[in-house]
Write a structure and sequence with these properties.
- The radius of gyration is 28 Å and the shape is globular.
- It has two domains: about 20-110, Immunoglobulin-like, CATH 2.60.40; about 230-800, TonB-dependent receptor, beta-barrel domain (Maltoporin, Chain A, Beta Barrel).
- It starts with a helix and ends in a 19-residue tail after the last strand.
- It has a 29-stranded antiparallel beta sheet that branches. A six-stranded mixed beta sheet has the order 9-10-15-16-13-14, with no helix packed on it.
- About 5% of the residues lie in helices and about 65% in strands.
- Strand 40 and strand 41 (about 705-715) form a beta hairpin.
- The chain is mainly β.
Length: about 800
């Protein structure tokens, strides 16, 4: 730590340099053109790099531009667009003055200048893949979860409401750089209600650098919301109606008012969804509570009604040219009501039969708030410092009622003095989570070739959870004492990082850094006042990125990163929750954190990219594993540590422009995976090949029409010893841009061929608890009927593009609180 502190202090005295671009625009008569857009584009793929406005004299200046090849574009209402030839900035040529450029008047309308359309759907960067959400036609009227599902390497487990990246669990999700510290199940629910219309891009960071939290052994998913960069008052209105097995609806409005010094923005979105799904079960197992071997056949119907309200407000201000301050707040209300109708036939071998019919009514309500204030100060042209303060608040209510009948062949109610067989039960669950984050970051360009970044961060999380199940027995409500969970959790995480970006030669660059994190987690049983968990963990997380430019079109990358996945608070809690009369959900206070080491080799040629990732997970966490209760009479469904997991993952992204009106992109993620489990009755080591495929076909059609066809396929995989079968889908959309800037109309169809059904298998890898062999077939809504959505969207206002400031807020908080 002394060495680290010394290094942090030394950085405060070093110097730097940076490139700049300047010039002036005027009419043919010599009149300057003020407040026009000057846009700097990447010279390879024409993606947006920076933007500026001309001043009253038509002059512009773009500073702090790194070395590279660029195109400069001028655009303004009433003038023809001007594009420069490709030019290069380097350590030898740090400035470029275009001088006076004369542009002609024209009939171009502002609405035609849409920079996002020039971005490819997928972009490979050093830390992972970027999905430019607004480049897909299927975005309109869709959700964040649907966009993730169509992203390369991402797998959504609808059975257990979890997310995997590149074949691994342990993913953390960020919203505008802040970790979403909530249970994974509720996080999935939150993303299923989040409008994709509000999202600018999704970053799939498989090897994040040291400036990010070390949490997330599989990597991080950062969802970046849109921020309007046009000067003046502008907005967008959109409405969506849809129908699959049941109806859907969505609406959103966004407004912004931007001036030279102050930007204000706000948005509101509403999402409503009614859906239907079911499962079919066939199981063989020994069950002592029933007296021996049995065969179970049954199913479960789920009817869901869900709505989400999202409100975002923000303010960015520049009191002077060197200082930016800002604040933003996002508030979400989510309410999901589900009615489950389970039924089963229990054949007790050789010939005794029991029947079970039930109904479970559940309400899951969440009230979430994410707020942030920040300050960024340019100390000198060579250095800057920022301060961020965040407060996150999550509150959950989760009551449920269970009605059931468990009958013998003669119609008699089963009663063996176990209240889990009670015909009427009710559950209660309340959770409050509060997170405070403070962070400061400092960066300094030491020379033309060296830039240093450093920072410190503190996170404090406190939560209170109360849950229990009561059974109706002999005319009275009886507490199931083993299901009572009243926990208080306190966790503090302190972190410091340092990172150096070094241009070794004009073609070789190195980024090396390390992050130190110290965490202490205390979980207290509020009923006894005793700590059930008190853990301290201090870990150093080094990382290194080496990049070699082979030519103007090709490059090679090599990286090493170390990551951690801490158990979620719910996973550690000693709770029990009802599943059926023979099984309960439970926590596991003995869980260990997962430590991951990654080595990645990448190659890119133009927009084509290829990579090979080697990773080793020690003690990976697998949820919903099966074990026997201490009394060996009930089935426990709980998270468990595996011994290890090894992955060799190959990833390729292949975009191809067939013609001027037809673009396609294909991506592949897959490889060899191996894990070892010892929580089962018989330890096992399993190796298998897993992969996923994604494709997008985009078409620009006559009469302002465009169309898109997308699809994905995931091969069979494993969650611990649970096998998850193959799944995939094909989607399509068509869009019409209306005349006179009247907006656009879009029709989309999800799961055209109704293929969204898959199977889950238990007991196929090794001997499981009670000799169970279980096959569950899951049929999602679109597996019964394609989901059609019709959307209308229209922008309004008269603004011009302005350069954007910093996205406010700390860079990392939100994911370790699963919600059942």
């Amino acid at each position: 730590m002394k060495k680290l502190s010394f290094l942090l202090c030394c950085m405060l005295v070093l110097k730097t340099a940076s490139g700049q671009i300047s010039g002036r625009f005027a009419t043919a008569t010599g009149q300057p053109i003020p407040f026009a857009n000057v846009i700097l584009l990447n010279g390879t793929d024409t993606t947006l790099v920076k933007a500026a406005l001309t001043d009253e004299k038509g002059a512009y200046l773009i500073e702090n531009t790194p070395s590279g090849k660029y195109i400069l574009r001028f655009s303004s209402m009433g003038f023809q667009t001007w594009n420069s030839p490709v030019f290069e900035l380097s350590s030898q040529q740090k400035t470029r003055d275009f001088g006076l450029q004369v542009v002609s008047e024209g009939a171009q309308q502002l609405g035609e200048v849409v920079i996002q359309a020039e971005k490819p759907l997928l972009q490979q960067q050093a830390e992972g893949m970027v999905v430019n959400v607004q480049s897909s036609l299927l975005t309109k009227g869709s959700t964040a979860l649907a966009i993730l599902e169509r992203s390369p390497g991402v797998v959504i487990d609808y059975r257990n409401n979890s997310i995997a990246l590149n074949g691994k669990g342990g993913v953390t999700v960020m919203l505008n750089g802040k970790l979403i510290r909530m249970p994974m199940e509720q996080l999935v629910n939150l993303l299923s209600g989040m409008s994709a219309d509000d999202i600018e891009k999704i970053e799939l960071l498989s090897t994040p650098s040291s400036k990010y939290d070390a949490e997330g052994s599989a990597g991080m998913i950062n969802i970046v919301l849109k921020k309007d960069k046009q000067q003046g008052t502008n907005g967008t209105l959109s409405v969506t109606g849809g129908y699959g097995y049941r109806e859907k609806a969505a609406a959103s409005i966004s407004l912004s008012h931007n001036t030279a010094k102050v930007n204000t923005y706000g948005s509101y979105s509403y999402n409503f969804n009614r859906s239907y799904s079911n499962i079919d079960i066939l199981s063989y197992q020994d069950m002592p509570v029933f007296g021996g071997r049995m065969e179970v056949s049954g199913g479960d119907i789920t009817r869901l009604r869900q709505y989400n309200h999202d409100i975002t407000l923000g303010l960015d201000a520049k009191p002077n040219t060197k200082t930016t301050i800002g604040a933003n707040i996002t508030y979400n209300i989510s309410r999901a009501t589900t009615a489950n109708l389970p039924s089963a036939r229990y054949l007790l071998l050789p010939d005794s039969l029991l029947t079970f019919d039930g109904r479970i009514d559940r309400v899951n309500s969440w009230y979430n708030l994410v707020s942030s204030v920040y300050l960024e100060r340019e100390i000198s042209p060579k250095s800057k410092i920022s301060f961020d303060l965040d407060y996150l608040y999550f509150k959950n209510y989760n009551p449920s009622q269970v009605y059931s009948s468990f009958l013998t062949e003669s119609g008699k109610q089963v009663d063996n003095n176990d209240s889990l067989f009670s015909p009427f039960q009710r559950g209660f669950g309340n959770t409050l989570i509060q997170v405070g984050v403070i962070r400061t970051d400092y960066s300094r360009q030491l020379s033309d070739k060296i830039k240093l970044e450093t920072g410190i961060k503190g996170t404090y999380t406190g939560s209170n959870t109360l849950s229990r199940i009561e059974s109706w027995i002999d005319g009275h409500w009886v507490n199931r004492t083993e299901t009572i969970n009243e926990m208080k959790m306190k966790e503090g995480i302190g972190a410091a990082y340092v990172s150096a970006n070094i241009a070794i030669t004009p073609s070789v660059s190195l980024t090396a850094g390390t992050r130190f994190e110290y965490a202490r987690t205390i979980m207290e049983d509020a009923r006894t006042g005793k700590n059930t968990v008190d853990r301290k963990l201090a870990t150093l997380f080094p990382n290194i990125f080496l990049s070699k430019k082979l030519s103007d079109r090709a490059g090679l990358q090599l990286s090493y990163t170390k990551r951690i996945t801490r158990p979620s608070y719910n996973d550690l809690a000693s709770f029990m929750a009802y599943s059926d009369p023979t099984a309960i959900y439970a926590g596991n206070p003995l869980l260990k954190p997962t430590i991951t080491n990654n080595i990645k080799v990448g190659y890119n040629y133009d927009a084509y990219s290829f990579s090979l990732l080697f990773s080793r997970d020690d003690h990976p966490i697998a949820r919903y594993q099966l074990s026997e209760s201490p009394a060996a009479n009930l089935l426990y469904i709980s998270p468990q540590n595996l011994v290890y997991q090894n992955n060799i993952t190959f990833q390729a992204t292949l975009p191809w422009k067939v013609t001027d009106w037809w673009d396609m992109s294909y991506s592949f993620t897959g490889g060899l995976r191996q894990f070892k489990a010892d929580h089962t009755l018989q330890p096992v080591t399993k190796s298998y090949w897993g992969y996923s495929l994604n494709f997008t076909e985009s078409f620009k059609l006559p009469q302002h029409f465009s169309a898109e066809l997308t699809g994905w396929y995931n091969a069979p995989s494993y969650n611990g010893t649970i096998k998850v079968g193959r799944m995939g889908t094909v989607n399509a959309g068509i869009k019409k841009e209306l005349k006179n800037n009247a907006g656009s109309i879009q029709l989309s169809v999800a799961d055209i061929f109704t293929t969204m059904n898959f199977s889950v298998y238990y007991g196929t890898v090794t001997e499981e608890a009670f000799q169970i062999k279980n096959h569950v077939k899951i049929n999602l809504e679109s597996g019964f009927s394609p989901i059609f959505k019709l959307s209308y969207s229209r922008p309004f206002g008269t603004g011009t593009l302005k350069s954007s400031g910093k996205e406010g807020g700390a860079k990392d908080e939100k994911d370790r609180i699963r919600k059942d």
